[in-house]
Design brief:
Elements (H helix, E strand, L loop, with lengths): L16 H19 L26 E6 L2 E6 L3 E7 L7 H14 L5 E6 L5 H12 E6 L2 E6 L3 E6 L6 H11 L2
Parallel strand pairs: 1-4, 4-7
Antiparallel strand pairs: 1-2, 2-3, 5-6
Helix pairs in contact: 2-3
C-alpha cells in the first residue's frame, strides 16, 4: 500500500515590523530636513532691447560697476557719483550700502539698478553686491528688518579693460 504524502502548504505571514520601524524614524527625519534645504532664487532683469525698440526716457539710471579693484557708483546720464576702492582686502560693502541709502532717501520711488560686472569678479562677490543693493538691515520697533533699496537688479558686462583709475581720473574732470 502506498501512502500519499501531502505537502504541507502553510501560508507564511509577512513580518513588516522592521519596515514600519524604519518608516517611523525615517519619515520625520526627511520632513525636518526639507525645511532647511530651501532654494532661494533672485529674479533678474537682463538689459537689452529688440531691434527698432526705443529706450524709455528716465531721469536717473543708477549703475554699480563691480571689478576686482573696487566698486563704482554712477548715473549713466550724469557720470560718476563715487568710487569705492578695495578696503582691507575686500570690497567696501558697508560704504556701498551707506551711499545707496543716501540715494534712496533722495529718490524713494526708484527701484531699479544695473550691475556692471567685470570678467574677473568671483561669484560670491557678485551675490554679496546683489544682496547689498537690494536691501539693508534697519531697526524698526526694536527689531531688525530688511529695508528695501533697489530690488530690481539688472546685469551687464563691464568689459575687460575697466579700471578704477580710469573712472577716478574722469571724475576729477567733471563728476556729479
Amino acid at each position: 500500500m502506498r501512502r500519499r504524502h501531502r505537502r504541507l502548504t502553510a501560508q507564511a505571514d509577512l513580518d513588516i515590523t522592521a519596515f514600519l520601524n524604519l518608516m517611523i524614524v525615517l519619515v520625520p527625519v526627511l520632513l525636518l530636513g526639507m525645511v532647511f534645504t530651501q532654494i532661494r532664487m533672485i529674479e533678474l532683469n537682463f538689459p537689452g532691447m529688440e531691434a527698432g525698440q526705443a529706450p524709455a526716457s528716465e531721469n536717473f539710471r543708477l549703475v554699480v560697476t563691480v571689478i576686482p579693484a573696487g566698486l563704482e557708483v554712477a548715473d549713466s546720464e550724469r557720470g560718476l557719483i563715487e568710487v569705492l576702492p578695495v578696503k582691507d582686502g575686500g570690497q567696501d560693502y558697508q560704504g556701498l550700502s551707506a551711499l545707496l541709502q543716501q540715494i534712496k532717501a533722495r529718490m524713494p520711488e526708484k527701484t531699479d539698478v544695473t550691475l556692471e560686472v567685470g570678467p574677473d569678479v568671483d561669484y560670491q562677490t557678485l551675490v554679496t553686491v546683489m544682496d547689498t543693493v537690494r536691501s539693508y538691515p534697519a531697526v524698526v520697533a526694536a527689531s531688525v528688518v530688511e529695508a528695501e533699496l533697489f530690488p530690481d537688479v539688472s546685469l551687464m558686462d563691464a568689459g575687460e579693460d575697466r579700471t578704477l583709475a580710469q573712472r577716478a581720473a574722469a571724475a576729477d574732470g567733471g563728476g556729479v
